[in-house]
Design a protein that fits this description.
74% helix; 2 domains; mainly alpha; 246 residues
Length: 246
Amino acid sequence: MKNRNLILGISLFFITSCDTLEQAAGIVLDTTEENTSTPALTNDEVIKGLKEALNVGIENAVSFTSVTNGFLNNTEIRIPFPEEAVKVKEKALEWGLDGQVEKFENTLNHAAEEATKEALPIFKDAILNMSIQDGFNILNGGDGAATQFLKENTSSQLIEAFSPKVEEAIKKVKLTEYWEPIISKYNIAMSVTGGEKLNPDLNAYVTQKAIDGLFIMVEKEENKIRKDPAARVTDILKKVFGSIQQ
């Protein structure tokens, strides 16, 4: 009788223990399910998110730079007197041509502002192709990674496509009218003194500076999306950039 009771007691203990273990296991499973992280991103989502981020950045950058004084009043991208012609500026100021120098520098920036109005479709075409590997490298590459990829893979094409737009803009804002009096007087003086004559290619200069300025603004917009959840204006941006922590 005692043995039978003992066996019964042991059986009840194991049955109860098993029920308790199952309940505990259920609690652990429920907790795991509740804490499951966001599902891994698909390749398509990564590429779509990065392209959208670049498109948002480009659209914002162009809207900031293509308005009147968009370059001129922005100290980050304001185009200065051509570096290779600093001696020209120094002499012009020495000769009292301060007004001409200021007008030239202002118009230099207005030419870039005019040109960037045409930049949006050029940039958009440039980001259509992006490999899956590129996408994940950019996603995890940190600040400016997408912009750097865009710069490395499109700069030469952008210069080629952008140059005629700058040339049109230079004519529209009459940049050479402010440049000619300055450079002509300088080169005449150099003929007398035997110094080196200068006449930088303004089209090439404005083209490169305009593109550089746009990339600066695109990178600012990209980094904003990476760091500020409020800048992720679509669901795909929230999902893709929300998957990485800065």
